Amino acid sequence: MSYTTTTRRGVNEKVKNLVIAGLLIALSIVIPMFMPKYQLPPFSFTLASHMPIYLAAFISPVTAVIVALGSALGFLLSGLPAYVAARAATHVVFALIASYMLRNGWALKNPLNLIIMLLTTGVVHGGLEVLVVIPFGYGGDTLPFTTAVLGGGSIIHNAIDFFIAFFIYKALSAAKLIRKVEAPSAKKAEVAAAAGGTLPEAANQPPTSEDAMSGAANAAEDAAESVENAVDNAAETVTDAAEKVTDGE
Questions:
Q1: Where on the phi/psi map is residue 79: left (φ > 0), alpha (ψ -120 to 50), or beta?
Q2: Does domain 1-249 have CATH number 3.40.1000.70?
Q3: Side-chain half-sphere exposure of 202, counting CA atoms within 13 A
Q4: Is 22 exposed, middle or buried (0-12, 13-18, 19+ CB in 10 A)?
Q5: How does the average pLDDT of the chain come out, rounded?
């Protein structure tokens, strides 16, 4: 029964991630078409346009890449100039970097790591966007302006959308709709506790950047866990009943 329950939960987790990934792809297409925009060519600001990408980064690198491509399609369909869609296509790169830094908890281990992640993804994000607009006439004498406005603007926009995505991620993880990312020290402490041991050094770690931003989500997480347990028990009961009917019992 324990093996069956574990298997069912594993399947449910995969199905949950697949559904969320589909919703994020849809959002990444719709946001460029309908959200408010500000343009100072070649820079443009579309509110929350990177939010689905960052949420996908918490799930997996593959999901992050697919959602980034969906965002590029959304910008292509939005009626904005072609260079805007070309800029969006480069988001695949920073999406991959963000996902690898976020999924193993490294970026949430402490505030310094979070800053490093935001600077790394921001510079890659802005730098690639500057490069991709050069063939559209934004190189040459205008390159310093392009670099300052587009490169600098992208770094700021990148950080704003990450924090929007982070707080949505906290709500989703509290509701058990998305896997909660643990900082490495927290994972070690959990393993030690499961083995009956202790890790004093982990307990003495300073608060992580995630802790600093997520205190309000703890109560909601406890409530969501109770709801999840009730739903799991109900799902197991329905599944057992269905198996009996199938077996002719």
A1: left
A2: no
A3: 15
A4: middle
A5: 80
Extents of the domains making up the chain: 1-249
Which pairs with CB-CB distance under 8 Å and at least 24 residues apart come from 230-234?
232/5, 232/9
- pTM score, two decimals? 0.71
DSSP 197: -
Q: How far is it, in rounded angstroms, from Cα 25 to Cα 95?
A: 13
CA-closest candidate to residue 32, choices 65, 99, 81, 98: 81
| Predicted confidence (pLDDT) at residue 203 exceeds the cutoff of 50 | no
Residue 232 CB-half CA count within 13 A: 17
Angle between helices 91-103 and 111-133 (to 10 degrees): 170
Q: What are phi and psi of 247, to 5 degrees?
A: -80, -5
